[in-house]
Specification:
Helix content is about 25%, strand content about 25%. By secondary structure, the protein is an alpha/beta fold. Strand 8, helix 1 and strand 9 form a beta-alpha-beta unit. The radius of gyration is 21 Å and the shape is globular.
Amino acid sequence: MKARVYKSTGSWYVTKTDEGKLFNSRIKGVFKIDDITSTNPIAVGDIVELEPEHDADETAMIIEILPRKNYITRQSPAHKMHHHIIAANLDQSLMFATLKNPRTSQGFIDRFLVTCEAYHVPAIIVFNKTDLHRKKEEEKFKELKEVYTDIGYKVFGMSVEKNEGIEELKDELKGKTTLMSGHSGVGKSSFLNKVFPSFRIKTQDVSGWSGKGMHTTTFAEMFDLPFEGAVIDTPGMREFGIVEISKQELSHYFPEMRALLNECHFNDCLHTNEPGCAIKKAVEDGRIHAERYISYWNILDSIGATNY
């Protein structure tokens, strides 16, 4: 019996069959997953094979994970040397960002985009809380929108509070499985509650003393949309650690750099101090935004020698 994983609480998984039947499922005792080194071998969005338990109508054993078309992973917050699969079998990802209360750094956005590029998941960026924008934030929003649209990403401005930009974003969700990510407090859960009141997802205000969001979503969870499609709500993240990407690979996941790699003098160019570097020349000429190049440097510097 095939089913999809809708929620993971550690040792138990909420799964749903194509017919809509829910099971509380767990991994079979002798179940072994080859070539998976993540802290969570089964992720929300996985398609699994179930074996219902004979003594109960609502529990089942997971006996197999079917091949994933893709997944998104991040560095495990608890184990820096391990990675954690956020979700699997995605059509797209939605990065919620805010420029105020709390502020999302461009570095955080770029790390997420790099991971999406590496795992072949199309990404959309949504800047929420535009109702809080003053002149400084509005200028920054216009600047960032230009940066990311120039390199091919869809960028939306939205205010859940003022009901602005919501319908346009809803159209992007139709018929797709979408991962929703971002810092705590950026409005992911508020957006879902606004558009789909039946979800009743817990929300919490941004902490006044720190300016940072309070964690409200404890585990990733998938919700079927009223129209065709589904969204996966994830716990708010304070940081986004990149894993399984080497220094040599990194520039391949910056679309504006990827287009110029063959023009570098050296095949193994890291685009830092090498002569004849097409990437550095493009930054000097304004064809690559300086802020993106700074992000590249920062991410490159964070990749350990073992990932070289």
